## 1
Amino acid sequence: MLQFSELGLPAVITRALDEVGYTTPTEVQAQSIPAALKGADLLVSAQTGSGKTASFLLPALAKLSERTDKPGKGPRILVLTPTRELAQQIEKNAQTYAAGMRWMRTACLVGGQPFGFQTRALSRPVDLIVATPGRLMDHMRQGRIDFSRLEMLVLDEADRMLDMGFIEDIETIVAATPESRQTLLFSATLDGNVGRLARELTRNPERIEIARQESGGNITEHLMYADDMRHKERLLDAILKDSGFDQAVVFTATKVSTEEIADKLSDMGYAAACLHGDMPQSWRNRTLNDLRRGRVRILVATDVAARGIDVPTITHVVNFDLPKQAEDYVHRIGRTGRAGRDGTAITLADTREYHKVRRIEQYLKRTLTEGVIEGLEPTRRIQKGAPRRNGGGGGGNGRRYGSGGGYGNKSYGNNGNGGGYGRRDGGNGSYGRREGGNGGDGYGRREGGPRGNGGGYGRRDGQGYGNRD
Ligand SMILES: Nc1ncnc2c1ncn2[C@@H]1O[C@H](COP(=O)(O)OP(=O)(O)OP(=O)(O)O)[C@@H](O)[C@H]1O
Ligand SMILES: [Mg+2]
């Protein structure tokens, strides 16, 4: 079994990994770490919960384990993330992995928090900064950040940052960093706009794409149709009663509904709390901490919690509302089943939302198993009628990637091989939305491959996913 020490990491780091109980590197770590250590730029995509954070942090910390001869006090490593909670989590991970490197100084620069503390951190030498683009830009405008020592730039959840409209900020930030830097880009997807950004930011990057299991892997998925909102609430109630969950995340479409549902669950006696982007940051932090400590059992959240958040004790995800974009489905359900654990994801859909479900299934390239709860079956017919069809034909999608993940420990071992996921070189009509909403036009050259089935994404309605809602 491959060991962390064989990846070329310094002992000060492998000792810390022993301490946290990481015995063997995950597949994405085994591939990314040696490549990053030799200085290559990387473009990486891999399944949720598969250990991407350490894939960039460990080589970054390996750099920091050696002194720099460059003068100045600016950061040597910069990590950009789309959300504040994710930035904070990554800073914590870095501190854990660098437990033996007492000299290391980190700063987390995120919005919604006072400048004072952040400014003070920047007035001293800092080795690693984790930031959301907006707040980092604020500090840059004040002239507080000197990037002349910067050795490595990491973009985590790069596709999400683009979706959130951070492109100009990212470009400005990158322009302020030295050309000589190493760049690592992690993203759910590497085509479309992310591909373009990657070409701008990286030099001869190595592309690392780790197979995703076709079946959903260690996350068991269910789909349930509901007549209306009231019906959904009864289903949620029944799910929470019967599922034997430890901790759950319930995703809803709007900020208001996170509050309403969290209130209802609290009234029913659950330790529930909501999380959304309009809450004061101190409250957001407290809520997530309470979830991590087990004081909150049910988090009702918008997609602000869909990316990257790692609370390994979450056993269940419920999509109370369908995600707006098909790829968000994958990120939402990925809040459970982390690090090789099992998880359950239950998606509720209105009987009128059949076509939205189909879009998600097309993205996943598999169908979701429909289930019912006795006595709570939908009474309305699922509206399967023909959707508006004006799009082009199907774009196949291509190659299967052979070897799957594999934590090496038994629980993850079933992930071992053959779980290919058809790369999306073919039908990227789904990105049409980001390119002006025309996903239906001639994308998706067919690349053949075992799953090139002509389905194509998002093109049945000629629009691609997402923006129709
Ligand atoms: N080598 C390892 N051995 C055991 N556990 C690990 C290992 N690497 C990472 N983990 C654990 O796996 C969990 C998921 O890691 P991480 O958050 O980095 O996943 P990710 O791939 O970034 O997921 P997402 O796509 O959701 O952001 C964390 O709890 C982390 O501590
Ligand atoms: Mg992550």
Note: The chain has a mean pLDDT of 84.
## 2
Amino acid sequence: MDQPVKWVRASSLDELPRDGSGRAFDVDGLDIAVFNWDQSYFALENYCPHLGFPLTEGIVEEGAVICGWHGWRVRLDDGGCRGKTLTARRYACEVRGDALWVEVPEKVQSTGSLNTES
Ligand code: FES
């Protein structure tokens, strides 16, 4: 069964990151990383799937963010990591009027977890 979701206003357009960068927002209690790549916005949980380093501390390159800790490449469009089975959670997002909205679970659960994949 699908989890109930809701759309939450994440930020005004002026606060959004410039092309090729990311910025963190608290969206209904979730730490969400919003990236701007090639004139599109992408929203991921702000935790690297490897060991939880903030993805917004990484470098955006070729549609992925390269984690600043151990260099995992996390794709912005689906949260997948090159050569790894783990993924970052991706959230739908869209510009509505003068703001970016993000689709989040109706009931917020904690995000970020540790794993043992190296
Ligand atoms: S915490 Fe991101 S690559 Fe290790």
Note: The pocket of FE2/S2 (inorganic) cluster is lined by residues 48, 50-51, 53, 67, 69-72 (CB under 6 Å).
